[in-house]
Design a protein that fits this description.
single chain, elongated, binds zinc ion, 11 strands, alpha+beta, OB fold (Dihydrolipoamide Acetyltransferase, E2P), 20% strand, 2 domains, 228 residues, five-stranded mixed β-barrel
């Protein structure tokens, strides 16, 4: 009779070796995947080309998304129904020089979209330049407080104060008449004294600014309705 015992012994041996190899391979593949994941995350591969620059705080990406810069507000350029605001064209030109046809990385705060469906983001160039901050630094945009998107508020307000002190950009010839103004410490907006929206400010949040400059320095932004 033939001895088949070698088969009985060999098969489990083979299996054991195969299992070990498989386990080793699985570990290796898992490690490689984990490493490539880490690599990808640190390299921040998601950069998007800027296709169009609307104005000082809004761009369109190559994939069609319209992005509104978080935490800042640049003066408007002319639209069909209204003229440009003071320093609007300069802000758009500066923004264009900064990002047009460049690749940008988007960083999100608490809210990813605004009421118009635009993406809300902090933009960074490939060399690490923080676009929103550059605009404030040059006096091309103001810092705007908007809860709950407050990640870079202290940086942006500090840069705005530096720009104001240096009289950079729009702060060079800042028209400052028509005061005093009523500030709302909750919304951090300031109004003309007669503005109906300002009148609703609760006494504990009310404050008076002698000048617009003072209001901006404190981190307040002008009310969209009364446009102080
Ligand atoms: Zn108002």
């Amino acid at each position: 009779m033939r001895d088949w015992s070698f088969v009985l012994f060999r098969i489990p041996k083979l299996k054991e070796t195969t299992m070990k190899t498989m386990i080793r391979r699985t570990i290796l593949v898992t490690l490689l995947l984990a490493l490539s994941g880490l690599y990808g995350a640190t390299r921040a591969t998601s950069f998007y080309r800027v296709r169009w620059v609307d104005d000082g705080d809004t761009v369109v990406l190559a994939d069609g998304r319209r992005v509104r810069y978080t935490g800042i507000n640049a003066p408007e350029v002319a639209h069909e129904d209204r003229p440009a605001q003071r320093f609007g064209p300069e802000a758009r030109d500066f923004n264009r020089k900064l990002v047009y046809k460049k690749k940008v990385r988007l960083e999100f705060d608490q809210e990813k979209y605004d009421q118009y469906g635009r993406v809300l983001a902090y933009l960074f160039l490939q060399d690490g330049t923080f676009v929103n901050a550059e605009l404030v630094k040059g006096g091309y945009a103001c810092y705007v407080f908007r809860r709950p998107n407050t990640r870079y508020d202290s940086l942006l307000l500090r840069l705005q104060r530096e720009a104001m002190a240096k009289r950079a950009g729009m702060w060079a010839r800042f028209p400052d008449q028509g005061g005093p103004f009523l500030g709302n410490g909750h919304s951090r907006r300031f109004h003309r004294m007669a503005c109906p929206f300002g009148k609703g400010t609760s006494p504990k949040h009310r404050m008076i600014f002698k000048t617009k400059y003072e209001a901006f320095w404190a981190g307040y932004s002008p009310c969209k309705q009364c446009n102080p």
